[in-house]
Design a protein that fits this description.
By secondary structure, the chain is mainly β. It is built from 1 helix and 7 strands. The chain has one helix at 61-66; strands spanning 7-9, 15-18, 29-39, 43-50, 53-60, 74-79, 85-87.
Length: 92
């Protein structure tokens, strides 16, 4: 809409994690390295550093157990475009 965007937000559960690069243009896909893995009960939180930014994804425990994820591994993050929120005002 031509307005300046100050911040974007997306919930960790709306970020998909993949061990292989997904097909497509890659508009909402980022490659990064896992920096931490934390069990939070019914899900696993994964920190990923990509392009100098830190993102957090959240996976159900059963899905995490099927994947071969560990700290230091390269992964791909796919952000659900419909779940991204852009903020035109600088919020804290």
């Amino acid at each position: 809409e031509g307005k300046e965007i100050h911040k974007v937000a997306i919930l960790p559960r709306h970020i998909y994690v993949s061990e292989i690069k997904p097909p497509g243009r890659g508009v909402n896909c980022f490659q990064g390295k896992i920096t931490y893995i934390k069990d939070v009960g019914n899900s696993i939180r994964i920190g990923v550093e990509t392009a100098g930014k830190n993102l957090m994804a959240e996976l159900p425990v059963n899905l995490f157990e099927e994947m071969d994820l560990e700290v230091g591994k390269d992964v791909f993050l796919i952000l659900r475009m419909s779940r991204i929120r852009a903020y035109q005002e600088n919020i804290n």
